[in-house]
Every structure is written in C-alpha cells, then in structure tokens.
Structure to design on (179 residues):
C-alpha cells in the first residue's frame, strides 16, 4: 500500500508546503541568531528538534486534511487500521525524503552563501565543516515546521491526491492508474 502511494513524490504535489519549506529555510539560513543557536545546541537536542518537526508535519497533514480514516459499516476496523498505518508510513517516508533533500540543499546554500569569515565573527571561533552541517540541520528542522504551516494552505483534495496512489471514491478504493 505504501509503495502504491508513491511516498517519494508525495510532497512534490503540495506547492504551498514546499514554499513554506524553502521560504523558512531561506530566512533562517541568513539569520545570525540561528547560527548562534545552532552552535549552542548539542546533537541530542538537534535530533529532538528534527523529530518533533517531522512528527508535527505528518500529524498536521493527517489531521488538517482529514486523512485519518474511521471505521464504519462499509470499512472494517482492521482495514481502517491498515489505511491509517499506510497513511502514516507514506507521509513519514515522504517527509523524511523531503527533509534529506532540503538538508542537502541547505548545506550547499550555506557553503555558497555564508563566508567562513562572517560565520567566524558571529561564532567568535574558527569555523569547521561541522558548523555548516549543524546550521543546515537546524535550518532544515525549522523549515519543516514552516512547511507544516504552509501545508495548512493546501486543500484536502490536493493533499489526498499527493499522499495516495489510492484515492477514496464513492465506488470504493481505486488506483489512480485505473481511472
């Protein structure tokens, strides 16, 4: 079910979410306060911030666009659980792939945009490659929250179409290729 939902392309169909991702990343990466915060955070806190951002995005997409299925007379509880698990896994994979792409892009942009001497002045110490990685990590995590906010501008049908290879139809569940 998850493979049929094509999680690798899911978030590409959500332009407002992508604008939130990239807009937040662009504003964050040039903010020297973010540089200082990133420098002060340890790896565990960065992991927690990243996981909270990814979880918030997945939860927001599910709740805000009514992707959570409820059992009824026509859909047994076991099938409903499978649909919901498929939705969670699809969106988790999609957000993780998007996060990795955003992180890689942010590392490149940071390396091109932020001169080491400027970063050294702000951090008041010599800069290493890990400083750019940490900056990209924090920026990507913040941008994930920005993406969640941007996804709130998406309508339910757009999110449903992006998240599912299978779409609920009045006549039952159909693969979009069968239409």
């Amino acid at each position: 079910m998850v493979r049929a939902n094509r999680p690798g392309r899911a978030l590409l169909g959500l332009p407002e979410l992508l604008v939130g991702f990239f807009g937040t990343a662009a504003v964050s990466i040039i903010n020297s306060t973010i540089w200082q915060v990133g420098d002060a955070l340890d790896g565990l806190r960065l992991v927690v911030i990243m996981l909270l951002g990814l979880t918030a995005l997945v939860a927001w997409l599910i709740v805000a666009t009514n992707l959570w299925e409820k059992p009824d007379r026509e859909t047994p509880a076991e099938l409903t659980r499978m649909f919901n698990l498929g939705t969670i896994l699809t969106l988790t994979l999609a957000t993780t792939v998007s996060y990795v792409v955003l992180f890689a892009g942010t590392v490149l942009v940071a390396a091109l945009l932020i001169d080491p001497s400027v970063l050294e002045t702000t951090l008041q110490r010599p800069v290493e490659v890990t400083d750019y990685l940490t900056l990209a990590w924090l920026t990507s995590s913040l941008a994930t929250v920005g993406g969640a906010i941007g996804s709130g501008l998406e309508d339910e049908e757009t999110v449903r179409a992006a998240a599912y290879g299978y779409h609920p139809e009045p006549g039952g569940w159909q693969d979009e290729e069968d239409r």
In short: The chain has eight helices and two strands. The longest helix spans residues 77-113. Helices lie at 7-10, 15-29, 32-40, 43-64, 77-113, 116-123, 129-151, 156-163. The radius of gyration is 19 Å.
